[in-house]
Design goal:
Helices cover about 45% and strands about 15% of the residues. It is of the alpha/beta class. It has a seven-stranded parallel β-sheet with strand order 3-2-1-4-5-6-7, sandwiched between helices. A six-stranded parallel β-sheet has the order 10-9-8-11-12-13, with helices on both faces. The two termini are about 20 Å apart. About 5% of the residues have low confidence.
Length: about 350
């Protein structure tokens, strides 16, 4: 199996989850990724890198000339990768690097599938649509139906769906009888969420517990503000980054964050949420992701332009003070969550390969 993915964690995390499940089922997995991702991928799988970048929205932008050059150079690299690894199937995990690999593999007769992580079909997957046998969707998308399009949910790693409230409470030193709110804004943090969280909760008389993942670049500034406000460190847990985010979600009574790929993890763990979509996400996909949770009854959505300390405090404390509503939101989250999403994707790949074998 050859997995092609690169760029952001939004593309890499689902691709790595699928690779993990394939390997657990004794498939031989190899990877094509971007140069920046190659070192960590090569520690686990045979891998090579292709230099790629996306097109600017302005057709005549000077940067697009460079992109065209990289695309021309990527084609023979992709061809050599498919020749080197000789896969039975190619999985396009998203990001521009998956485009030439999946397309050229399909043209060589290798069955290919793609993963779509958001509530709209991204540029790469729109271009790959004629070449792939299946596109596995994280969310239902109007007009996209079987057999080519299959809603499986966003693939999650095992440690994400096996997260534990007890491990989260222990790791972050939390008191089980006090409400826990997890606040995060993605791997780099989010300024509007950080400022609103500090304004809402970083005070001397904090009566709940907050895990605030603020991002490395914001940590020094946020630390200084927490100290200035006198927030009790035993209740206001400020961290730059954590690799135990899933356990933090499992321990939380309420999750506050953006609405990228993390909404799938929130739902898989059955957590209620307050979501503030990133307003500049491509094709408004974070707003679509958030709407999916909101329509299910699992989340309250606050536009980034309306986000503030008082507004966040009012919404969060209102929910924590209404256990019935909070449990109803948690139940709604569990209903739409797909903890078996990764297994469903790999089941779909195995089914496709059996169908292809019968045809040949």
């Amino acid at each position: 199996m050859l997995v092609a993915a690169g760029g952001t964690g939004g593309h890499m995390a689902p691709a790595l989850a699928v690779a993990e499940e394939l390997a657990a089922r004794r498939a031989v997995v190899s990877f094509v990724t971007t140069p920046s991702q190659l070192p960590r991928i090569a520690e686990r799988y045979p891998a090579c890198a292709i230099e790629m970048r996306g097109f600017e929205r302005r057709l005549l932008a000077r940067e697009n000339v460079v992109t065209l050059g990289k695309l021309a150079a990527a084609a023979p690299c992709a061809w050599r990768a498919v020749s080197r690894f000789r896969p039975r199937c190619v999985v396009g995990g998203g990001g521009y690097v998956s485009g030439p690999v999946v397309a050229l593999a399909a043209l060589r007769g290798v069955p290919a599938v793609a993963l779509e992580a958001d509530a709209h079909l991204g540029v790469t997957n729109r271009l790959l649509r004629p070449y792939v046998k299946r596109i596995f969707l994280s969310f239902p998308i109007d007009g996209l139906a079987p057999p080519k399009f299959v809603v499986t949910g966003r693939p999650l790693a095992r440690h994400q769906v096996e997260a534990s409230r007890e491990r989260g409470l222990d790791h972050f030193g939390l008191i089980p009888v006090l409400p826990v709110v997890l606040v995060f804004g993605g791997s780099q943090g989010a300024q509007s969420i950080n400022h609103s969280c500090l304004d809402a909760f970083a005070n001397r008389d904090l009566e709940i517990q907050v895990i605030h993942v603020c991002g490395e670049r914001n940590y020094a500034e946020a630390t200084a503000e927490v100290q200035q406000r006198g927030a009790p460190v035993e209740r206001y847990k400020l961290v730059a980054y954590t690799d135990r985010l899933a356990d933090a979600m499992a321990a939380a009574d309420l999750v506050v964050g953006r609405s990228g790929g993390s909404v799938a993890e929130i739902a898989a763990l059955g957590r209620p949420a307050v979501l503030a979509p990133y307003p500049y996400a491509s094709a408004g996909h974070q707003r679509k992701n958030a709407r999916w949770m909101e329509e299910a009854g699992a989340a309250i959505v606050i536009d980034d332009s309306d986000l503030s300390g008082p507004r966040l405090s009012s919404v969060v404390r209102g929910l924590l003070g209404d256990p019935g509503r909070l449990e109803a939101m948690a139940a709604a989250s569990r209903r739409v969550g797909r903890p078996a999403s990764t297994q469903d994707v790999v089941d779909g790949i195995e089914k496709l390969l059996k169908e292809e074998a019968r045809i040949t």
